[in-house]
Write a structure and sequence with these properties.
Number of strands: 2
Strand order of the largest sheet: 1-2
Radius of gyration: 19 Å
Shape: globular
Largest sheet: 2 strands, antiparallel
Length: 278
């Protein structure tokens, strides 16, 4: 992969990971448009790390409080937030275990991915129809936000969009729903990083005419190419900007603004990829 291609994909990853427009969907469509046919697992690993850096930088104060709560007795609210993050992570883990093969198959169908962008567009309009409330995170909201994250394993369904919308529909205050959604992304990104790195380690290489698995050390080495690191840096910088933008949009109650872009992108994608595929 050329450096310029990696930077473009990294920019798309950074924007789409946190804007409610589906990073996986946009990565699939971008790679098809650029003619990047191979499934580049090592590059996916590095992009995961880039977006993880964005979340850690933006929410460093909140993350430090969560860590402090583990040894500070009177920080009960923060400890409960850790528990609710665990609850919110369970639905995606269960869904991936049960339907992982179906989710993976969707990545090979750009027409389906484009159609799912339209579903995300519709989803972002839903909170506008629900009366705003100011509740905090609890059992109901964390579970529903977790279900939203599970559906977002499908490329074209936005993780941030589905989880924030689920939080708002559960009565959570807008800023709290957005923050919890982004904190939810940390175990999701770390989990995706580990699973993808495992897949890279299990890839077969030919050594002296013998097929062997790469192993963890070789998997890590394969992630350190100059182009991959350039893509990760682009994802981290652009991702940080995207988080600032989404937090502002959510506070102003204008999440549906992103729907107009998704409608245009989804319809265009369905028409274009149906045409080239016929």
């Amino acid at each position: 992969m050329e450096i310029w291609e990696a930077i473009i994909v990294g920019i798309v990853q950074g924007l789409a990971e946190f804007l409610p427009i589906s990073s996986s969907g946009h990565i699939v469509l971008t790679q098809v448009l650029l003619g990047i046919d191979e499934k580049n697992l090592a590059f996916e690993v590095v992009l995961h790390l880039g977006t993880l850096v964005s979340v850690v930088i933006f929410f460093r104060a909140s993350l430090w409080k969560l860590c402090q709560s583990l040894w500070t007795k009177d920080m009960k609210e923060e400890r409960m937030k850790i528990f609710w993050l665990g609850v919110a992570t369970v639905p995606a883990v269960v869904a991936y275990k049960l339907f992982g093969d179906y989710f993976k198959a969707a990545y090979d169908n750009p027409v389906l991915v484009s159609g799912l962008l339209l579903l995300t567009a519709a989803l972002l309009f839903v909170p506008k129809m629900v009366k705003a409330k100011s509740a905090g995170i609890g059992a109901k909201s964390s579970l529903w936000m977790g279900v939203g994250q599970a559906f977002a394993i499908l490329p074209g369904i936005s993780r941030s969009g589905s989880t924030i919308a689920a939080g708002l529909m559960s009565g959570v205050k807008a800023e709290k729903a957005a923050e919890f959604s982004f904190l939810m992304s940390i175990p999701a990104i770390v989990g995706g990083f580990i699973l993808t790195l495992k897949d890279v380690a299990e890839e077969v290489a030919v050594v002296d005419g013998v097929e062997v698995e790469k192993g963890w050390s070789a998997a890590l080495d394969s992630c350190l190419s100059q182009s991959y690191l350039a893509g990760a840096l682009a994802a981290a910088v652009v991702g940080l900007f995207a988080i600032y933008l989404v937090m502002d949009v959510v506070k102003r109650g204008k999440l549906e603004y992103f729907s107009y872009y998704l409608i245009a992108a989804g319809i265009t994608g369905m028409i274009y990829f149906s045409t080239i595929g016929s």
